[in-house]
Amino acid sequence: MMQGARTAQRAHAAHWGQAANALMPMNLVFDDAGTIVHVGPTLQKLRPHIDMVGTHIHDLFAIRDNGRGDEGSVFPLDTKLYLTLKSSPATVLKGIAIKIPGADVYLLNLSFGMSIVEAVRTHGLSDADFAHTDMVIEMLYLVEAKSAVLEEIKQLNARLQGAKSHAEEQAQTDALTGLKNRRAMDHVVARLLGGRVPFSLMHLDLDYFKRVNDTHGHAAGDAVLERVADILREETRDDDMVARVGGDEFVLVFSRMVDSARLLRTAHRIIARLEEPIDHNGLRCAISGSIGITTSALSQCGTPQAMIHDADLALYAAKHAGRATAIVFDPARHAHNAPSVRTDEA
Question: 68 with 82: CB under 8 angstroms?
């Protein structure tokens, strides 16, 4: 007899629960002993691997009320409740429980309260998990719209940052050779001087380049410049810098390399490679190079302009020594010389 009454009670509870699912999908129905007899679909989604039906409600939740509940009930009724799921993640819920008229069962309606956004993210919920009249739906739409806007802003910022970086790179790059330009060279020299990093600077001017342009045309001249750029890249290290600072002028900056003998060996190797004829559509383009060298240790003023001037003086001396050579700046010999107007000779 008692078993039949219990079965009828559970059937009645399930009927109430099914009716409540559409309006309050986070409902829970329990009997007068505190045993859960029905769980709403959204509440079950919070613990998909736990069969809540048949579990005692106090085994599932830690419960705190406002002190005004029905003291005669196994569960506080008709009062605001704060419940925390005992298993991880310990989601915090708000709720209220009432007794269903004419039955020894109780209906508990739950919500996430202010933790709705975190709960939706944690449990993978969507608008389908809430009643259509629930204001949570409006909040989810707003959260989704905000997330979409923030993602679009994030992508826009990334594109703008990429465009800015590209523009900055372009502003410091020689379009023909892909080497750095004078602006980039000035920046690097100033940074090394400011950081008191020892370094050297070579100023290379191509010999007989004007003859290539005049004889074979500017396309051949461009091909020669591109080949020169390749040679200079191959003869420098990753930490060094090569810049094209004029039509046929280049500056090489060697970080932490100030030994004159080593610099001269490098310069002579570059000159030797430049003197190898460069083929352009079957035309043999012959050039050479003159190089002036200075180091941060030789610079008396310690400014980018002063170092470039010192390298120019050494380059001027190399030109007048017969070209195709390299000279290290000597303050005693070169400081009072002034470069005359360049001639690109025969």
Answer: no
Residue 67: its pLDDT value, please? 55
What is d(CA 258, CA 123) in angstroms, rounded to the nearest whole number? 64
Is 134 a residue of the active site?
no
Residues 68 and 192 in one domain: no
Q: In the predicted model, is pLDDT for residue 345 greater than 60?
A: no
Is residue 346 a part of any domain in this protein?
no
Q: Which helix (H) or strand (E) holds 234?
A: helix 218-234
The residue-averaged pLDDT of 75-95 equals 87
Clarify whether residues 145 and 102 are in a common domain.
no
Q: What is the mean pLDDT of residues 111-116?
A: 76
Statement: residue 72 has pLDDT above 80: no
The domain in which residue 154 lies consists of 134-171
Are the beta carbons of 17 and 38 closer than 8 angstroms? yes
pLDDT of residue 184: 92
Closest CA to 244 of 179, 312, 310, 309: 179
Entry pTM? 0.56
User: What average pLDDT does range 302-316 have in this prediction?
Assistant: 90
Q: Which residue has the tokens 């050039």?
A: 287
b (16+ CB within 10 A) / e for 313-328: bbbbbbbeeebbbbbb
Question: Which residues lie across from 27 on neighbouring strands?
Answer: 109
Burial of 135 (0-12, 13-18, 19+ CB in 10 A): exposed
Phi and psi at residue 56, to the nearest 5°: -75, 140
Q: What is the DSSP letter of 173?
A: B
Specify whether 123 is located in the same domain as 20. yes
Average pLDDT over all residues of the chain: 84
Residue 36 predicted with pLDDT over 80: yes
Nearest alpha-carbon partner for 219 in 342, 334, 227, 87: 227
Catalytic-labelled residue, pool 248, 279, 312, 330: 248
